[in-house]
Design brief:
The chain has 439 residues and is mostly helical. 63% of the residues lie in helices and 3% in strands. A three-stranded antiparallel sheet has the order 1-2-3.
Length: 439
């Protein structure tokens, strides 16, 4: 045989040179929701902009600008290592309290309709609780990793995050922002349950907090009116039930396929906040029942995929990544559920926007950052799966020779003699990697 025909040994791929990919389902769902949001903000805000004499496309241009900045933040988050983010968990928690206190600083805080929820950044107002939700999720995910066993075994470890949440909720009561308060509490409870907290032990603080929430809900007359008006908005359609009555009329008028894009009547100064809190009612009127089902399906895909990514991370013992994914899924899922429920008259009116669809700079920016963090989690998960697959497909000796200058973490080292790599879903023990991430 000719010497040029001698086969050369295959070059092994270095573990560090294996890269992952971003989850296409997350990208597709987020892009679809954002694109629908641009169309519907443009359709629903024209009448409001003309009433304010700022030009018919003022809110659309503003929304697109914020979305563009949000995409930049999303890309930045998607390229940031999770171990770098986890390193600043305590600073992020401190930032939560600083941001919620900043709204009370004279000259910096901005009041709208009696609520102190914004800070003035010069070019725009920023609602600080939108950033607090994401920062708090990162801190709580890190806490559940550091005290995973204690949270399930001791009262102190379980009550600490609940105490932190109560501190944040107290500041939200002072603003006031009851909708974000309830959302933050629900995120805390959901992440603790998914993090393995002892459920019977957690029932005690829940039973204590529920009456307190009821007291907060009825302490202010306007909150009590909201709780009663959603039961029968047409009992007082020109006062306490005005928003919900017009929202229900818009959705009823849309029927199955809607009256057509841009043909809504309720958005013509009849339905308040048509481009923000009640944008789903405009979708229901213009795109009908089919349009509302499309929105719900896209949120179900986004949230369901986020939960799936989180579950796979936990299965691979990448707990910080998994808990972050769970928290973001809870945040987007619960907020969209409340917003949809309010528009359909199933829940009392709350000042929560529809993520990625409603106009609103703060919500758009922070939701984009949350999506970027989800994409980073999916990237590192896929990278870990590819690295494990490479290790399982090669003999231990060649891998060790090729990567002699770059030792592997013990968790991803080739299996010892006698160990059997098994397919996902098998009942036998699998080799769990950490790949250097802080989990």
């Amino acid at each position: 045989m000719d010497r040029f025909d001698v086969p050369t040994p295959r070059q092994a791929t270095r573990i560090d040179d294996i890269h992952g990919r971003y989850d296409p389902w997350l990208i597709g769902a987020a892009v679809a929701l954002a694109a629908l949001g641009v169309v519907m903000v443009g359709s629903s805000s024209i009448a409001v902009a003309e009433d304010l004499e700022v030009g018919p496309f003022h809110f659309l241009v503003r929304h697109v600008v914020f979305l563009g900045v949000g995409v930049g933040l999303c890309l930045w988050m998607a390229r940031t290592e999770l171990k770098t983010i986890e390193r600043f968990d305590r600073l992020l928690l401190l930032g939560c309290f600083v941001l919620l206190l900043a709204v009370f600083v004279p000259g910096l805080g901005h009041t709208v309709n009696g609520a102190q929820r914004w800070i003035n950044l010069g070019v725009s107002n920023f609602q600080t609780v939108e950033a607090v939700k994401l920062m708090y999720i990162v801190w709580l995910a890190s806490y559940l990793v550091r005290f995973r066993d204690e949270v399930n075994a001791t009262w102190a470890a379980m009550l600490k995050p609940i105490g932190v949440a109560l501190g944040l909720m107290l500041l939200l009561v002072l603003q006031p922002d009851f909708g974000s308060l309830a959302l933050l509490l629900a995120i805390t409870a959901g992440m603790l349950v998914l993090g393995g907290v002892h459920l019977p032990r957690m029932a005690a603080p829940v039973l204590v907090l529920l009456p307190l929430l009821a007291i907060v809900a009825i302490a202010e007359p306007y909150r009590m009116r909201r709780l009663t008006s959603f039961m029968d908005p047409f009992a007082d359609p020109f006062n306490s039930g005005y928003q919900l009555a017009n929202a229900l009329m818009a959705i009823g008028r849309g029927e199955l396929w809607g009256v057509g894009l841009g043909a809504s009547i309720q958005k013509l100064s009849y339905l308040p906040e048509a481009h923000t809190d009640f944008i789903l009612a405009v979708i229901g009127e213009e795109l009908g029942f089919a349009g509302v089902c499309l929105v719900i399906a896209l949120y179900a895909l986004l949230v369901g995929r986020a939960f799936w990514v989180g579950l796979k991370c936990v299965e691979m013992r990448r707990h910080f990544a998994g808990y972050c994914a769970f928290g973001i899924a809870l945040m987007i899922g619960l907020q969209s559920l409340v917003s949809i429920g309010v528009n359909l008259g199933l829940l009392p009116t709350k000042g929560l926007t529809l993520p990625l669809i409603s106009a609103g700079g703060s919500s758009v920016l922070m939701t984009c950052m949350a999506i970027g963090l989800l994409l980073r989690i999916s990237y590192e998960l896929d990278r870990a799966e590819r690295q494990v697959a490479r290790l399982r497909g090669e003999a231990p000796a060649p891998v060790a020779e090729e990567d002699a200058g770059s030792p592997l973490p013990a968790a991803v080292a080739p299996a010892p003699a006698g160990a059997t790599a098994v397919a996902r879903g098998s009942a036998r023990k699998r080799i769990e990697p950490t790949l250097g991430s802080a989990v």
